[in-house]
Amino acid sequence: MRIGIGYDVHKFKEGRDLILGGVKIEYDKGLEGHSDADVLIHSIIDGILGALGKGDIGTLFPDTDIKYKDIDSKILLSEVCKLMKDSKFKIGNIDCTILAEKPKMREYIPKMEIIIAEILETFKENINIKATTTEKLGFIGREEGIAAQSAVFLDKE
Ligand SMILES: [Zn+2]
Question: What domain count does the chain have?
Fold first, then answer.
């Protein structure tokens, strides 16, 4: 059994879609990033890589590589899933928290859980996503960006 944690932050940018957990969220701005800036999926990727002892997302998918420009982070997650399976591990469970002052996430979360479970070839019950504000404190409270953290537990296959 192995455990990993992931944490990621992206800042808001006008004129971009807001994509979280592979779901497009209705909002007036998105997140800035080399890829689609899906901060939740990035934190899950880092959690899985941490549990595997295989570094981090920036090492695996460098943002200097044009190949990853505006890439759908679901594709990156499926590549990490392959890596996990090659290492003979499977998802035990994943618990995530999205930290955002706005927008409200609740209605989107079940869909995020289904998408992530499907990509990682596990049951929806093994993926738990929560969202919280920071009570208007700090960069999240000032609505400058969104953060996500994930705890990942892997089981030997
Ligand atoms: Zn990121």
Answer: 1
